[in-house]
Amino acid sequence: MSDQGNEQQPQVEVVVKAEGEQPSTSITPPPPLTATQRLKKEAEEQLKLQQARVAELARQEAAELEAATDHSRREYLLQQLERSLADDRCAQITKHMAEMILLEHKITSSLFTNWDDCFVRLERRVDELSAQQSKILDAIQGLSAQLAAAKLITPQLPLLQPKPSPPPSQPPSPPPSHAGSAHSSRSSTPSLKASVKATYAAVTAADRGPKIPAPNKFRGDDPKTDVGDWAAGTRAYLRGFVCAEQTKVATVLGLLEGSALKWATSTSSSLQQSMEDWAFGLGVDRLLQALEDRFADKERARKAADRIACLGQQRYSGTLQALFAEFEQLTSTPGLVMAPDDMLTSFCRAVPEKFVVALYSAGYKDWRSFGRPGNGGQAPYAPPVSCPPEIQQVVDQYADLMQEPFGLPNRPTKHHIELLPGAVPPTGRIYRMSLAELEELRKQLETLTSKGWIRPNTSEFGAPVLFVPKGNDEFRMCIDYRGLNKITRKSTEPLPRIDDLLDMVQGCTVFSKVDLKSGYHQIEMAEEDVYKTSFKTRYGTYEFLVMPFGLCNAPGTFQTEMHRIFRPYLDKFMVVYLDDILVFSKTAREHAEHLALVLQSLRDSHYKINREKSSFGVPSVIYLGHVISGDGLAPEAAKIVAIQEWPPPQTVRDVRSFMGLTSYYRKFVRNFSAVAAPLTNLTKKDTPFLWSLHCQLAFTRLKKALTRAPVLKLPVPTLPFILTTDASQYGIGAVLQQDDGNGLWPVEFMSKKIKTQKL
């Protein structure tokens, strides 16, 4: 017991102190109210209550008057709309609009009415269940009393009777205004959700359920939640319940919210049924299937097929287990239509390089058998070597080529910088840099100085230095030699055509790619031109003793040096484009001999290679932005992804950049010129930039065409060629094909945009 009840109320002492007297401690109680005063006070309180009641009634009267006015105005407008439909003087568009408004009003009113009916039916159902529960408890109580009287059982505590639910009060008749119906519908929604939640709570409390966590709520419009995965998880969760089918259906209804709950309500209302009766009639399986049919992603199968094709464009960066798991998920997508051979081809192309040789040699016919050994699905599997033994032996013999290059190379080829007559030495200002860039600058200067590739100087030349992010929190140091290049006499040494290089690998199945380590820095500068390479930094001026990046004639000098070294082998079993060397052969034994000749030439000329960017004895290789294999030629997946993620251009410069990248793969796209015509028109001189609907469609079509680019067959000179041409007033196109015994395969797509007057 609390002591607060025994405490006395504090008393107020009234102290009356006259001048010259001591204070009195006596308490003066207030005088009692007379009968008249009490009556007056009661009358004042009643008056206040009546005034408040009058004010409330006035507000209700104003609201009813406003609702009645709105209703009469709505009825008048509806009559006018009906007259407009029958009036021949009204325009057809006016009639259509009037009909649409009437139909919308009818549908909306029926929806609001259905909500009210559903609310009433739910309340009646709850009352019926409460009455049944009371009868059951009374029967149990009576039976217990009889058994106790017969001394068959020990009297137990009386069963708790459920609190009787209040009698169902009919919802007030909706006011004639439309707003009143809307308010009634909105107010019934929380009651409906509350009743469903109460049912779900009763289910989980009364029945024995699984120990796995309950699935999340399903809204239907959340892009992060897949309805198929949610339905599968819900089925697994409900399988652990030991309860009636209707209880499981109520559980599913309790998990719906947002768009999913609205769909269930509207579907049942259209069938003139309550949501519970409609769902109980379907059952759990059909209800979940209906949810999947309604909220399934129609593009999921297409996205899965595109993802499988994208995986087949390059080697998978993760483990074979991760690749196998992703393929399992993609190939189990509902509605996916894809040939087993296409799946196997994509999986083979995506397999990490160290598994390629062993898995190919096993001769599996489907991708699951192909990938399961490396995934631990069968017998113990030893990871294969990265390349055949004979090729690996050759690579090991030339391990000295993998060392870091340093010092000045002693070679006959040197780079010269010939200035134009009367040229003025260019100078550049020092750019501001962040703390991270300054730290990287110090490291780069120390590294280049320790290798003997740069030295301090005081030249009148001086190019600025800047850094370009690599994307992995690293920076690439670049020297802006644009001023020097303007006054330099240009070299006439051409670079080889990339198409010609790729055509050389026809019929080969084993490839090696050799990348030179800091290739430009492995060529010495001519002593008389060293001072022209000077660059300014915050820490002083330096000059290059080796050929730097950024000089206009550097590619020609480097390509000339590569031709000098590999001239006996060019186009026979190797091609070279700057510092990218490709060796190709038809067999592994033959490839080992070819690779040994190439590596020996590099050793004789004291060149070093980059082991991380090189690959040896592989069935497919990425070279110059293309995937080369025994099947043919395909675009590099990384470049295609970059094209797919390219945002819509905002300027003419953006359009030129996008067209430059896509044009590199134009031979993979049928009628490329016609498709890209709206974009190329934007790049014309004196043409204002206006991104129209035609430009957006061309932009999207190019992306889609490159995503689905076919594998081009490398031309076989001994087989006949078939050329198919086409022309229109906008352009001409052609397809070059060959038949290798398995049907026609495209070799190249060609197209050109022409002016109308040329036809």
From TrEMBL:
Residues 1-42, 158-190 are annotated as: Disordered. Gene3D superfamilies: 3.30.70.270, HIV Type 1 Reverse Transcriptase, subunit A, domain 1. Keywords: Endonuclease, Hydrolase, Multifunctional enzyme, Nuclease, Nucleotidyltransferase, Protease, RNA-directed DNA polymerase, Transferase. Residues 161-177 have a biased composition (Pro residues). Residues 1-11 have a biased composition (Polar residues). The keyword Transferase applies. The keyword Phosphoprotein does not apply. GO terms for molecular function: endonuclease activity; peptidase activity; RNA-directed DNA polymerase activity. Residues 449-628 form the Reverse transcriptase domain. Signal peptide: none annotated. Residues 178-190 have a biased composition (Low complexity). One of its GO terms (biological process) is proteolysis. PROSITE patterns: RT_POL. PANTHER family: PROTEIN CBG26694, PROTEIN NYNRIN-LIKE. This is Reverse transcriptase domain-containing protein. It comes from Chara braunii (Braun's stonewort).
